[in-house]
Amino acid sequence: MDSFTDMIQLGLSNIWTYGVTFLVVLGVLVFVHEWGHYIVARLCGVKVDVFSVGFGKELFGWTAKSGTRWKVSLFPLGGYVKMYGDSDPASAGFSDDILLETGEKRTMTEAERAVAFFAKPVWKRALIVFAGPGINYLFAIVLLSSLYMFMGRPITPPVVSGVEVGSAADQATLRPHDIIKTLNGQKIDSFDDVRRKAMLTLDEEIVFGIERDGKPITITARPTKITDTDRFGFSHERGYLGLIGPANGIDVAQITSVEGQPTGGDSLKTQKLLQQHLGKDIIISTTAQADGVPNKIKINPPKDLNNFERAAKGGIGNKKEPVALILGQKPGDQVIKYNPFEAVGVAVTETYRITAETLKAIGQMFMGTRSTKELGGIIRIGAMAGDMAERGYIALIVFTALLSINLGMINLFPIPMLDGGHLMFYAIEAVRGKPISERAMEYAFRFGLVVLVTLMVFSNLNDVFQLFVSSKG
Predict the structure, then answer these.
(1) Which residue, of 43, 55, 108, 185, has the greatest Cβ tally within 10 A?
(2) Tell me: the pLDDT tens digits for 28-54?
(3) What global pTM score does this model have?
């Protein structure tokens, strides 16, 4: 991205991909979240006055027989469910007075109090509040498990195809053909597990359980902290090992030297040079940095000349021949389909992993290990949604599940105004046997509002600032 203007032009020229995709994904997740509150409230005997997707002025809506006003409002970045008896959508206060059309007030009848949110036992109120984040997690599990059942789960074998010379992996003596069995004692089944672990490990060592030549060995490596900048100008800090997996690709024509001998860009010459070092660790130089492949890579080509004959042709179809083919490994992902029970189990595990990794990244920001520049707002989420839509519906489904998990997790933070803040107050009420005073609640919600507004302003200004800086760079 050369300038901030390019970013604007990209957004305008792809308004459907970036703008509409973002609004549709967000609208679905907001509806799911609020529907969780709504359906459990109804099951608990609470009357719901308003169900709104969006804030502000109503664009359109209808009133159901139950008395609930269902509506879509002007500002789509959120939504709310207003319970009967609450003085505001955030349930920050309540009143047992009914305002009449004449302007006078009267006290609720017993029948009216019976359907009011504030009059319900604390456990029912807590259940209603928890249902919003809870259904976001359930929705993500349903999306992922359905994907794993019907489309399958892509798995990249956890095999080292190449090692960047001088990298953390190289210094730790990881070698081509190493099969990674465990990370810090935990069993893995995909090279993506290695990548994710490295990305989140900014200040710690990783213990690799390796199988090499049929024998188990243990290797320790500390990832190098690097900063990536995407095409929009947003920066991301991550740990980098320098391992090349089977999914990484490189055109043989981009190999510029083999063991220091230049190839001149001639694929046939490259083939002959590689054939001289079959079954040995050798170093090749490439010009494929733009594709994510480092300049110098240690590989170990197999004793199978057929692979080189195919590789010398420059690729199969529209895909470049991967380094994995030079190593005699099957390129690309292996797709595994699960039965319904297995799919749900894998989806639950994946959901837990995403939550744990996100919390770890947030903790790293608080500790100063990770930069707060990674906190993104509306612009960054919209850009990510558009990118996922361009990659296809499967990527978009996975992104929606990821966003749903994050929406549920954030809402569980114990910050007043969020669901987690309400749950914290209900826990205190359950212990004390009585609710917190209205004055204390008022101050708490004011504090929570300041915190949320500050975070929103900071994250969105962060996006704008990074875009501006990238345009100047």
Answers:
(1) 108
(2) 999 999 999 999 999 999 999 999 998
(3) 0.76
